[in-house]
Amino acid sequence: METERHKRRLSSQAMAFVLAGGRGSRLKELTDRRAKPAVYFGGKTRIVDFALSNALNSGIRKMAIATQYKAHSLIRHIQRGWAFFRAERNEYLDILPASQRIDEVNWYKGTADAVRQNIDIIDSYDVEYLIVLAGDHIYKMDYEIMLQHHVESGADVTVGCLTVPLAEATAFGVMDVNDDGLITSFLEKPQNPPHMPGDPAHALASMGIYVFDWKFLRELLLEDADDSNSSHDFGHDLIPYIVKNGKAVAHKFSDSCIRSGLEKEAYWRDVGTIDAYWQANIDLTDFVPKLDLYDQTWPIWTYAEIVPPAKFIHDEEGRRGAAISSLIAGDTIISGSVVKNSLISTGGRLHSYSSVTYSVLLPHVQVNRNARLKNCVIDSGVDIPAGLIVGEDPEEDAKWFRVTDNGITLVTRDMLARRQAELG
């Protein structure tokens, strides 16, 4: 009972600050109209819903989301799907767009500066701890456990970390840790990342999750703001400074990862490329997926649209509405079309004699008669012309669409419009 009271006490004194202002340029045209955290995932959720749901499920009721680039769809999603916080219950969710609050020159200059420019807002909530989160990763994690680790260790900063293949470590902050869990070095996105002791194939990487005592971080942010040589970034500046001059502790993701009985391994994905985004969505169609979205003990909250159920029609040879090993969202009509190992988001319309295989369709995609899609990501609102075949001839696809090195084809409305204009 004492442990439970302690946990509630910590969560009530913590605030989650979600960094959701990045460009997401590695997702190419998927982020032409939306920020990366606002990209759809899993048929009905957005990427940002995972960080917010983790905070909510962990017992945190004070949150802020810093936005910057192409933020409209993200802000609209938060307003529609996360408007259930009630101030009278001491619950708050603030949307904090870059708005030149400090002066009339600077927008958010870095991740740390995004927090620094909102010091007065954080102060107003009178919190003891600040949890800084990236808004663009897919995972389930109990931040309470990390909070407890932070307090018990007496750290100035606690950094969430996980093991990644050495070849992928250039995209992360990479750290060395001693036997006591103290971080002895921290390099942000190094070209030649150091491997883990005794394991030349892997590196210990930062998840972009940090826990601070707010008073400590507040002073550090003000000092950093006055440093003309700083890029005002957590990974590049503040964390290395604390490693050198203070106490930085590593928190293993495996210690606080949420797993149902079906999930055998700790699941975390950076879906920052078209290939990674496609794979993470397709993984959900596995017989036993690595990420269990059906775990009601740790729900992923989102904007729940009021839509009718999915519908399957026609039952004749060659024209049978069917879906195999696939996720089909509401308001989808599979009309004499066959879907295999795919994910169809809300509002899909798939017409007779068409097929969709190993593909991810975002909301309100229409696939007209006799079209065939394979190994594709189809952006929202795309109308696939009748008879179009995508994913079977990479050279032909590359004339009109984006084809990745791994053979995944991205199709957007603008690409189809250009194709139509050239073909007449």
Largest sheet composition: 9 strands, mixed
Note the overall shape.
Answer: globular
Count of DSSP helices?
Answer: 11
Helix content: 25-40%
Computed structural class = alpha/beta
- Strand content bin: 25-35%
What is the number of strand segments? 31
CA radius of gyration is 23 Å
Low-confidence stretches: 1-7
Through-space gap between termini: 72 Å
Task: Provide mean pLDDT, rounded.
Answer: 93
Site (Could play a key role in the communication between the regulatory and the substrate sites): 68, 107
EC number: 2.7.7.27
Keywords: ATP-binding, Carbohydrate metabolism, Glycogen biosynthesis, Glycogen metabolism, Nucleotide-binding, Nucleotidyltransferase, Transferase
Family: Belongs to the bacterial/plant glucose-1-phosphate adenylyltransferase family.
What does this structure look like?
- With 424 residues, the chain is α/β, with parallel strands linked by helices.
- The chain is 25% helix and 27% strand.
- Strands 1, 4, 5, 6, 8, 9, 10, 11 and 12 form a nine-stranded mixed β-sheet that branches. The protein has a six-stranded mixed β-sheet with strand order 18-21-24-27-31-30.
- Helix 3 links the parallel strand 4 and strand 5 (92-97).
- The radius of gyration is 23 Å and the shape is globular.
- Belongs to the bacterial/plant glucose-1-phosphate adenylyltransferase family.
- This is Glucose-1-phosphate adenylyltransferase.
- It catalyses: alpha-D-glucose 1-phosphate + ATP + H(+) = ADP-alpha-D-glucose + diphosphate.
